[in-house]
Each structure stands twice: as structure tokens, then as C-alpha cells.
Amino acid sequence: MKTIKEPIQCEINVKKSQFICSLFPTKTKAESKEIIQKINKQYADATHNCTAYIVSDGEGFDDDGEPGGTAGKPMINVLRKNELHNVTAIVTRYFGGIKLGAGGLVRAYSKSVMEAVGEAEILEIEEYDVYQITFEYSDIKTANSEVRNNNLEVIDKQYADKVSYDIVSKDDRDILKIFEKYSGKIETSFKNKQFLEKI
């Protein structure tokens, strides 16, 4: 599975209409909707701001006033064809005075997203089970040693009253089993599933 590393923007012109495609890495519907709102404000004077997204908790698209099936659907199809996930695509159109017809719109919106995908830096991603371990500051050495020796990857660290690491296994080891011998010292729990850059 793939995603894009960072936001990218690409512009094409078709029969005097300007199409600006903005691609953003996003993980959830809420994140997608937030970015779509931001772009709608930024390009409030545009004729259309059409959208498509594929994220961890669903997917969706919107023609934003273009004839049904001529904008959002072709956009999401490009994302699917390129096996892209955790991505939001927004194509902003400034109408240039020449009608493109249904087929012309489908081609223009598809091409706009394809151009942006072609310029984006693509990352391989995989779904991982994320676990959290929590321990006293005095046990940092032990925790770090187990992480190193068991081929685990720390994806986030929090330092508060105690230390917490979010960890994943690089080779599908049973993380609960690894830390069970430290019961009472290192608390281990399943946190969530996340799409992350391939480790």
C-alpha cells in the first residue's frame, strides 16, 4: 500500500479552465474534512472545489456542483488505481468560459490528479499493530534494551509522570509476550492499528 510523503500542488489548463490539484497526506475523515474546509476558504472564489479521499476510517468524494460522476468519482478512481491510501485530493477549478462536456470533465479531473500523483513522493505503507508500554524513569534502560533486542520500533515517546513508548514489531513478534516478564514494572497494552511507512 502507498501514500504520499508531503502535500503537493499541481496545475493544468484545459480549454481556458484552470485546474489546481492539491494532494495531502491524511489519516482520518476528520483530518480530510478539515483540509477540505481550509482549501474551500483559500479558494472561495473558485467555480468548484471537488474532492476525493481514501483514509483509514473510510473514503468519499464530492462533485461540488459539477455534473454527477464527472469530478469526484474520476478523482477517487485515480487514487485507487495508484493504490494510494491516507490521501485527500482536492481539485480547484476556475471556469474559463468553454464548456468541456461530461467526457471532457472526467478527463480533466482525472488528468489533474494523475499529474499531482506523478510529482508526489510516494511512500510504501503497511498496517501495524501499535502497542504502548508505560514504565518508571528508572526502567528506561530495560525498556530500551528489550526494544533493541527484539527488533521493535518506537514510533512515539511521551515523558510525563511515567515514560510511555508507542511501539511496533518489525517482524510480527508478540509484543505482549516480550514484556510479560516485567509485569508490574512495564505495563503493556494494545493501542490501535495504524498505517505507517514500511519499517
| Domain module count | 2
Going by helix content, strand content and strand pairing, the class is alpha+beta
Question: In the CATH hierarchy, what is the architecture of the largest domain at level 2?
Answer: 2-Layer Sandwich
Mean pLDDT: 94
The number of helical elements comes to 5
* CA-CA gap between termini: 13 Å
Kindly provide the name of the CATH class of the largest domain: Alpha Beta
Largest sheet: 5 strands, antiparallel
Low-confidence blocks of residues: none
> Under CATH, the topology of the largest domain is which?
Ribosomal Protein S5, domain 2
Rg calculated over all Cα atoms:
22 Å
Number of strands: 10
User: How large a portion of the residues is in β-strands, by DSSP E?
Assistant: 35-45%
Query: What is the overall silhouette?
Result: elongated
CATH homologous superfamily name of the largest domain?
Impact, N-terminal domain
Which percent bin holds the helix content? 25-40%
Written as H for each helix and E for each strand, in order along the chain, the element string is: EEEHEEHEHEHEEHE
Q: Quick recap of the structure?
A:
With 199 residues, the protein is an alpha+beta fold. It has five helices and ten strands; from the N terminus they run E-E-E-H-E-E-H-E-H-E-H-E-E-H-E.
